[in-house]
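Input record, target 12 of the design panel.
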């Protein structure tokens, strides 16, 4: 694929330190294959001055306000012409041959809508990183998990996921998309702001009959928590709220209310657990998440109605029929390989 058809787009908000640290690496290993962009979400530090001064080969897209991951990338995508666009977090270190396998995957499958690389931890480089591991899945209750990561349990990389496989969702830390499919699917939904927006997008891709994939021959290293730390109650709020959002938007009618009810009960249990752990701010974040879900009910109903235009009700591939929570906390199944293959509709 020609360089003119591939873009690497890095979203930035007051991330000068990440640009200084990782942008030279991205340029060194991407310029021969792609045009590199920085989409700036109205930063108030001197990120733009840094770009002007030190990175003249990087094209800038300057948004007038901070609309989060979703709004920022949607605004930036409207100004791109390239067909393959890699949405890359600013706190990601890429490897020498990271981009070509992604491009090859798109060239080899005309129905491939999104793809992610192997995502390893920047600090513990032999270990998978929380945000995407070796590709994302969901269970019957809508809990997301990855090959290489279930809840907080992270596996070491021993080559066990050195393959090319279909997955349910690709990580927003390094999300390569076919731009025409991205636009046809309605882009990233700004109601999410940040977190779970890539799962929502990939769900729509599946319903449109497209595929989402993982390629292990592309490797990147993610710092994680570069925007929001796992210790930040704001992240707890977004994760709990947005998980309900994505389920309400996408679940088929037969499962909708039973799954939402079960998730609310489990969220309540999680809130109690946070309290017992001495994390009252996280408990309050769960309460606020549910409050926001109720307040956005009308907006979510409109989005759900719009989803009826898509052909498929339930993308069964890569959906785990069991409960990953019960497997993890009760049965002690802490690795992806521990999950019964028979409980997957389609198991890699």
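The sequence produced for target 12 reads:
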């Amino acid at each position: 694929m020609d360089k003119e058809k591939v873009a690497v787009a890095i979203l930035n908000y007051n991330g000068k330190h990440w640009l200084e640290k990782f942008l030279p690496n991205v340029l060194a290993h991407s310029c021969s294959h792609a045009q590199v962009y920085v989409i700036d979400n109205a930063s108030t530090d001197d990120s733009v001055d840094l770009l002007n001064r030190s990175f003249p080969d990087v094209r800038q897209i300057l948004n007038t306000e901070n609309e989060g991951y979703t709004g920022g990338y949607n605004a930036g995508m409207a100004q791109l012409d390239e067909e393959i666009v890699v949405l890359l977090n600013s706190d990601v270190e890429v490897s020498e041959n990271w981009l070509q396998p992604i491009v090859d995957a798109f060239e080899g499958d005309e129905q491939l809508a999104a793809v992610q690389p192997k995502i390893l931890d920047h600090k513990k480089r032999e270990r998978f990183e929380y945000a995407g591991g070796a590709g994302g899945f969901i269970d019957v209750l809508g809990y997301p998990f990855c090959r290489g990561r279930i809840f907080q349990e992270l596996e070491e990389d021993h080559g066990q996921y050195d393959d090319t496989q279909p997955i349910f969702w690709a990580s927003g830390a390094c999300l390569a998309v076919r731009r025409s499919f991205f636009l046809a699917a309605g882009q990233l939904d700004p109601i999410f702001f940040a977190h779970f927006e890539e799962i929502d997008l990939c769900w729509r891709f599946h319903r449109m009959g497209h595929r989402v994939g993982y390629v292990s021959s592309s490797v990147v290293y993610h710092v994680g928590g570069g925007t929001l730390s796992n210790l930040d109650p704001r992240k707890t709020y977004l994760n709990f709220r947005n998980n309900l959002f994505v389920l309400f938007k996408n679940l088929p009618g037969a499962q909708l209310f039973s799954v939402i009810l079960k998730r609310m009960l489990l969220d309540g249990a999680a809130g109690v657990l946070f309290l017992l752990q001495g994390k009252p701010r996280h408990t309050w974040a769960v309460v606020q998440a549910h409050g926001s879900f109720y307040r956005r009910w009308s907006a979510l109903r409109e989005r759900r109605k719009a989803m009826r235009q898509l052909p498929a009700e339930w993308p069964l591939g890569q959906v785990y029929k069991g409960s990953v929570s019960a497997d993890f906390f009760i049965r002690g199944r802490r690795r992806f390989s521990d999950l019964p293959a028979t409980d997957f509709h389609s198991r890699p």
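Residues 253-276 form the longest helix (24 residues).
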